[in-house]
Amino acid sequence: MKKNLRYIIAVILIILFTFSIVPKTFQNDTFYVIELGRQIEKTGVDWKDHYSIHKNLEYRYPHWAFDVINAKVYELFGFDGIYGLTVIFASIFILLVFWKLIKKDVNFNLAFISTLIISYMMKDAFYERGQIVSYSLFFIEYMILENFVERPTLLKSLGLFIVSMLMANFHSTAWIMMLVLLLPFIGEQVIYFYSLKGINERVLRKCNRDLNNAKSKGLSEDKIAKLEKEIAEREKYRVYYENDKTEHKIIIEKNPNIKYIWIAFIALVLGAFVTPLKLTPFLYFIKVSIGDTLNYISEHLPIIPANNFPFLTYTIVIVSLIGFTNIKLKLSDAFLILGLYLMALTARRNAFLLIALTSCIVVQAVDSFIKSHQKEVKEASKKVFAFFGICSIGFSAYMFIDNWNVKHIDESLYPVEATEYIKENLDYKNIRLYNRYDYGSYLLMEGVPVFLDSRCDLYTPEFNKGVTVFDDFMKLFYGMITISELMDEYELEYALVPVEQVEQVYMKEDSRYTEIYKDKNFALYKYDAR
């Protein structure tokens, strides 16, 4: 009873802590997610864009199920409901982390502390967008794969099928990563195959087969003796490898079940077909990769470790564990860490994926180190749970108070008042308006047709042939074209721009622009092309 109470208290504290750090102010994707969900309720997944001023664009609704859920919650509970849903998704992921650490027999106090730390490191990923679901789905997939390669069963294959199906409907743009997570297990067995132990094992098997054939066919005594001598030598090596006491940081283990990994592959692929999105889970990432958006969107740009404290801290922890302790890692785990680390260096958003999928491996390594020094840490660990429990309560209370009056929409980033003016004073349903990428999603949710929004791939030639809206916007942003050239090319009549930004500086000097509205954050101009 006492043990169960401890787990209940830990779960409550973890949920409260996660609740307190989930950002209350929404990120721009959340706005279009809500509106797309409402659109899907009306027309289904019709592959059409209904929100931009550009006609006949094809849109793939890559996270349609996620959109619909958010739309339903918004209809019932408004923005507070969306915030609550974000907390639920974030809490599910963090509790999965805690549950796995406990299942791996990690010390309870360490599991509790580590879960709080991981939650805090992931806080900037806890926005209501498709990624918040994919973290949990990737985590579940890897847990199933770890069990599958130990003991393949049809039930585990079914689990992989279901997880793949959910990913294909909730966040199909990231589905391809589900196949990538097979690689650490395959890579470990490839290395084992070409290791001295693996080579010796295969040669020994071949020699035994040849010896049996030689005896059955009555070959010469010299041939048989030669094979027996080779077998004896190979047996010596086999015994040596089995009894090798050399300390290795990386453990390479043979897994005879790896031959069944193709079943996991098939289960994942079949799951991706259970979606109205056709081949989108397979093709979306490829199309994005050959486009230009990855070169401009901040979350897709390379990470600079020195400027990212959570990533830098995580790097120091990993290097310290591997370089200065006696902990050991399975080669598959090392491959997972290395692969995701390289992915994180190429794109900032992948830093959260690195933490999400490898944190449990790191905590298990720390637990192994602590247990090897049990006498030194036993006394210090007695009051750890109570201490961190009290600290988490205090921190959670502070964050709740600090966030109490924070609004869900930051009016310095999104044109709330300007949008109201447009809807009340202009023919907003037919307006041809210039807007920036950053706040297009808010306009979209308010029913104002947009020049572009954060569905950036929609505005590229990879997804809509001949469409270069995103590239043209970036040319303006980097000064390669003027705002007037863009307005003329797209026959725009109005421009909604942030105050004192590059567009407004040009507009003030050009008599063709008339300021018809301004607040402290945004200004609206009417353009006379003449």
Structure in a nutshell:
The protein has helices spanning 2-21, 28-43, 64-103, 108-121, 131-150, 154-170, 177-180, 183-194, 196-217, 221-242, 261-272, 280-289, 309-324, 331-346, 350-372, 374-381, 384-403, 416-425, 440-445, 469-477, 483-489, 502-508, and strands at residues 250-251, 329-330, 433-434, 494-498, 513-518, 522-527. It is mainly alpha-helical.
Helix-strand blueprint:
Layout (H helix, E strand, L loop, with lengths): L1 H20 L6 H16 L20 H40 L4 H14 L9 H20 L3 H17 L6 H4 L2 H12 L1 H22 L3 H22 L7 E2 L9 H12 L7 H10 L19 H16 L4 E2 H16 L3 H23 L1 H8 L2 H20 L12 H10 L7 E2 L5 H6 L23 H9 L5 H7 L4 E5 L3 H7 L4 E6 L3 E6 L3
Parallel strand pairs: 1-2, 3-4
Antiparallel strand pairs: 4-6, 5-6
Helix pairs in contact: 1-3, 1-4, 1-17, 2-3, 3-4, 3-5, 4-15, 4-17, 5-6, 6-11, 8-14, 9-10, 13-15, 14-15
Give a structural overview:
The chain has 530 residues and is mainly alpha-helical. Among the domains are: 165 residues, no CATH class; 56 residues, no CATH class; 112 residues, no CATH class. It has 22 helices and 6 strands.
Question: Order of SSEs, N→C?
Answer: HHHHHHHHHHEHHHEHHHHHEHHHEHEE
Helix content estimate: 55-70%
Care to count the β-strands? 6
Q: What is the overall number of helices?
A: 22
Q: Which keywords apply here?
A:
two-stranded parallel sheet, mainly alpha, four-stranded mixed β-sheet, 530 residues
